[in-house]
Amino acid sequence: MFERVCTTDDVWVGELIAFDVASRKIILINVEDKFHAYDAQCPHQDQSLCEGSLEGTVLTCPAHQWQFDVTTGLGVNPTGCKLKAYALKIEADEIYVDAEQTPEKPKQHEPSHEHHQ
Question: What is the pTM of this model?
Answer without folding.
Answer: 0.85
